[in-house]
Amino acid sequence: MPHTFRFEPPEPRPGSITRPRLLRALLGRWEHQVTSVIGGPGLGKTTLLAQSLAENRLAPRGHDVWIGLEAADAEAGSLARDLLLALEPDPAASAGGDRPSPRVVADALWRRAPGEVCLVLDNVHLISLGSPGAAWLSELVEALPANGHMLLSSRSALPVPVVRLATRGALLRIGEDDLRFSEEEMTGFALRHDINRALLTSTGGWPAMAELTATVETDLAGEYLWEEVVRPLGPERRHVLAAVVDLGGADDALASAALGRPVDLAEELAGVPLVAVGAGGWRAPHALWRSARALGLRDERTEIRRRAVAHMTRLRRYDEAVTLAHEADLPDLLPAVLRAACVAGARPTVAQLDRWLALSPREVRASPAGRLAEALRATLVAPTQSIQPLRDAAKLLRDDGDLDGEMVAIANLGRVGWWHADMDALRELIPRVNELSAGEHPFGRAMMTVGRAIFADLEGDDAGVLANLDAVEPGALDPAWDAVARWMGANVVAGTGDAEAAFAALEGIGPTTDPNFILTIAGLRLTVQWMLGHVDQVVKEAETYVGRVRASGLHHNFAIVLPVVSRLLSHVGDVNGARAHLDELAGLWAAELDGATVGAALAWASLHVAEGDDERAAAVVAAAVAEHGLDGADRRAWRLGLALPYVLLPDSRSYWDGSELRSFHDVSRRLATAVVAVRSGADDKALRDLALPEPGIVRAALHHRFAAELAVGLEAAGHAGSGQLLEAIGPVGRAAVRELAASGGTKRTRPAKALLAAVPAPPPTVTQLGVLGPLTLRRDGEQIIDPALRRERLRALLAFLVSRRETTRAAIMAALWPDLDERAAGNNLRVTLTYLLRLLEPWRTAGESSFHVRTGGQRVELVTGQWLRVDLDEFDEEIAAAARAEADGTPSLALDHNLAAVALYRAELHADVAEAEWNVLDRDRYRTRFVAAATRAGQLLAARGDTDEADAVAHRAIAVDPWAEDAYAVLVGTALARGDRSGARQALDRCMAALADLGVDASDETQRLRRRVRTSGA
Fold first, then answer.
1. Predicted model pTM
2. Beta strands in 772-892, from DSSP E residues, in sequence order
3. Count of domains in the chain?
4. Is 846 found in the same domain as 772?
5. Domain check: are 705 and 623 in the same one?
6. Which residue from 344, 341, 343 is spatially nearest to 359, judged by alpha carbons?
7. Domain limit, last residue, from 114, 149, 179
8. Which CATH number fits the domain that encloses residue 835?
9. What is the DSSP code string of 541-585?
10. DSSP state of 277
11. Which residues contact 353 (CB under 8 A, 6 or more apart)?
12. Cα four-point dihedral sign 310, 316, 322, 327
């Protein structure tokens, strides 16, 4: 007898993640002659096939025939007999005898026509290429009838020819890249297993390893890898895999260098999972490979690592090179690694340098390369203390004849001097740089030109900076300094106010591996985004950016970033966040830095303005101007916060008015001038004619309090953009306008009140309306009981608005008060609308307009979405999602969405509103959609074997529609499945009576069930 289990597909594992994109792809098996699913062990092939077959059982598109292959199938005999047996069950077929030909099996498929049949063969890799089984399968592929299909799952390439199938579009291929978890699936897996998503990052998307990572059973992972993958490789390939795992990854060049012989990793590691293939053929094994038995290297490990260290150094993989040199006790290799890392152009991070130096013996740290590494570390953690270490390293490297290393030390001396505007430190470098630039060292010449650009920058000469940068010889700078030069140019362009040109310049900076400089570029990018008006985006990203700078250990940069971010936060009204950053800055200064900066002064001034203390803010700005001036190295900081000195310091306005400003800075000056005009009570005509840029630009240029003042001034002048500006500023701007409205006796009081009345305020809570049944109201999920809900006309008005969303007063009056004259109906509408507004927005201040219900003239609009959610909309979304899932071939997901829709439908639409001409069609439509969703859910539940739940939703459908024939069919089917003949007969009788009442004939499905009930003896 054949093994009966090979005919039984495995059930989907409980808790396994459903992957709609792959299930949708496997629907293509019904349109293709052959579908291949190829990937190594642990990629979830069998789980995927089991899910696909289970989905097809819920909503069949054809008949799947499963065969689990065995090694003996390579001889073809048992495979042929069992395939025929699976298609035409006959015990005699299992008794041995002649092997059925492919044509006989193909004819058995043909006899199923017009029904579609797919032969699902798992573990096809057990049939080797050239074996009798492979030849038999190849003939079967050629003999398949039009209604026959094959789904072949294998760990390696199929043993049957598929090129011709592919050329005529008869082959569907799903490969290893497809089988790996997508980002969305990885997130879903993490949520399902209640683990941190970051834990799955290193799994490479391999389902089996994700499962093992989730269980945290590394010994299990090792056993799995050994049994499923490692042992079948053989000794030679295991040796290659062991070397690649020990090295943490390799490409052909590194593997060949480490092993001392040519290695083709594509061939050696073919079919090995958990080895990601990157650009250039780099193979990166998963960390769990280290738990696999028999992958340890023995006597040759040291020599392999010595060769690997040299090769990794050439590849700039310094972390791995240092680690290998240390673990292999090869300290003589470390100076070369440290030097290469320091002169490579991409500065190592503090953490890297700390680690490398900690692993280096004293003699290595005392070498020229070690001293250079220590000096570079000092530039990152304590720049002012790095000058002497850099000088010492430069001398040692010069004495050693290492000009490249010396130039790195000199370049960093220049960078430190630039950071601190230390002209003396920069000037002392000029003789040696001149000497190098006069020789055959193009990098020295280029650095001399960059140095002149730095001097120009410190002197406030933007044109000089750009002219010197343009004079740098193409290709003379290494990639790191080329990126610095390009960043410097982008920074200068941004400082002139031309945000778009600065953004283009940033895009021109080549890729850099220096994580510290990446942060510098990211900071300038945020500044440019701010100037482009993307205020909310920058504020959202700023805190993350602060965290990245904090984690980098770059204390100097941190002292620059904190006040900038603090200013941005108070600029938009986040007083607590702004103050927290300034408090942190104060602690940092007390420990390491001396004196205040322009950035800190602007941050404090912005905070004082946010707190309503303009006098104190003006004093801070005045002190900073007196100490630092408005020109020079601090000019960009002043320009970015231009409105603060312009509005607060009258004496500074002549400077700003006489400055040549472009783009964003010119706009900032114009807007600041308008704020001054509002404060001084200037002629309204100038404000009325103000060309107002888009709200995002205004928000970036003006502090939120200044912007609020401008909005009130524009309202007083009759400017059409006042309301749009107030809406853009948001709640903090509105609070500022409320202060102006409450100030009393000022010229701005009346326009402030008018502006508040014209522009609705976003609500403080989310309101949820339930209208599929009696009206319910929740705020942030909490049920609200309000006497107003008992008012019949209020419920009717809200129901009318929910159904129409946007309408007119005349339409409402005609629907709700058709028998009243226009005056009486209008009075009723005003009163009812007042009750409705109180119900929906009890927090609304008198005189301010409603957010949820917008009125203007005849227009009345119910605004739903983020702040006002209606179960009707959720119901529609679930129904639409169920339809998409059905189309994608994932009825299990369709079931979830249909059940969600059923749960939302408590009773008929607007159940506590009297039936009227305006609501009857909507009620019928949602009643019909509910019945369809409940019936489909019942069908899918019944197919899954959940008969009790299927009965429950079918009964709900019949309660709403007593003539729902398909819902009765669900009840009949579930009763038969339970063996309840009487129950099946009763449900069928009720169905037939309902159809007779309608005067219609039973459908084919109902007739089929009727025959089943009769033949069952019920």
1. 0.57
2. 776-779, 782-783, 806-808, 853-856, 859-862, 868-870
3. 5
4. yes
5. no
6. 341
7. 179
8. 1.10.10.10
9. HHHHHHHHHHHHT-HHHHHHHHHHHHHHHHHTT-HHHHHHHHHHH
10. E
11. 373, 374, 376, 377, 380
12. negative
